[in-house]
Specification:
Helix content of chain A: 25-40%
Radius of gyration of chain A: 16 Å
Helix content of chain B: 55-70%
Strand order of the largest sheet of chain A: 2-1-3-4
Largest sheet of chain A: 4 strands, parallel
Mean pLDDT of chain B: 84
Structural class of chain B: mainly alpha
Low-confidence stretches of chain A: 1-13, 201-205
Mean pLDDT of chain A: 85
Oligomer: heterodimer
Order of helices and strands of chain B: HHH
Order of helices and strands of chain A: EHEEHHEHHH
Chain lengths: ~200, ~60
């Protein structure tokens, strides 16, 4: 079977585990799975569970300031930290990263982002859904090319919808990527299909 | 295909030619072309965020 990820070096012990993807692509769910599986995670709990993320955001406040200060990344060796994909460009070159990159139907992502903006009563980009989808698709293409050109990054792409439907199988794939350190049964057990609320419609986006 | 010539240190050229053959390249030109393409691809994207995506991230609370 063709490998689902690329492995560029044998340096593994203190790689920083990055859970990434667009906002609302399933990054919080993946963090929850990793924690349940036994991986140390970097989170400060400042952004607590709400209607947008019923099981919590699993965020680390300092990632919001990544443009100005990335020094904290040195404390993340062997741990998982959630960093949305547009911010990956700011990761310093001197570290090694294993990136679990979440992918999801783009219409579901935009629908979910719109609902979250509405609940937060915040403005977003102001672009139409079609424009945001196009922009996000271009971003994903660019960031994949950028990651593939980095010698200090290994990546596995995980589809959110496939995790929902085949959580144990996907947990095993992720565990293999992380060198079989995790409890896949516990990872799989955290998947709650009732949280899968933003299904793609039959629209023309 | 149009081509151009550049000058590099002779010792470096000899080392490159020797390496290119052992590494499976058909020529030193192919080896150096590969290196240049890889480096240019790596640096093509300047770290930064598209303005619209930045506004979206701010609205969603992922960036200050």
């Amino acid at each position: 079977m063709k490998s689902l990820f690329t492995k560029k070096t044998d340096q593994k012990n203190e790689d920083i585990i990055i859970v990434s993807g667009l906002p609302r692509s399933g990054t919080s769910m993946m963090m929850q799975m990793l924690e349940a599986g036994g991986l140390d995670i970097m989170t400060d709990g400042k952004r607590t569970a709400d209607d947008n993320n019923l099981k919590g955001y699993y965020e680390f406040e300092k990632t919001r300031k990544i443009k100005n200060d990335i020094s904290w990344i040195q404390d993340c060796g062997g741990k998982a930290v959630k960093i949305v994909s547009p911010l990956l460009y700011f990761l310093p070159e001197q570290n090694r990263y294993r990136i679990i990159f979440m992918e999801r139907d783009m219409r579901e992502i935009i629908n979910s982002q719109n609902k979250m903006l509405e609940r937060l009563n915040n403005a977003g980009s102001g672009l139409s859904d079609k424009e945001m989808i196009l922009k996000n698709r271009n971003h994903i293409k660019d960031i994949k090319e950028w990651i593939s050109a980095r010698n200090n990054m290994d990546v596995i792409y995980i589809n959110y919808n496939e995790v929902i439907n085949s959580s144990l199988q996907k947990s095993k794939e992720i565990n293999e990527f992380l060198e079989n350190k995790l409890d896949t049964e516990k990872m799989s057990a955290v998947i709650d299909r009732t949280l899968y609320r933003q299904r793609a419609g039959a629209g023309t986006l | 295909m149009k081509t151009a010539k550049i000058k590099i240190d002779k010792d470096l050229f000899d080392m490159s030619r020797e390496y290119s053959l052992t590494a499976g390249y058909s020529s030193v030109e192919e080896f150096i072309t590969h290196l240049l393409e890889k480096e240019l691809k790596k640096n093509r994207k300047v770290p930064g965020i598209d303005e619209d995506m930045e506004k979206q991230l701010q609205g969603l609370g992922y960036i200050e």
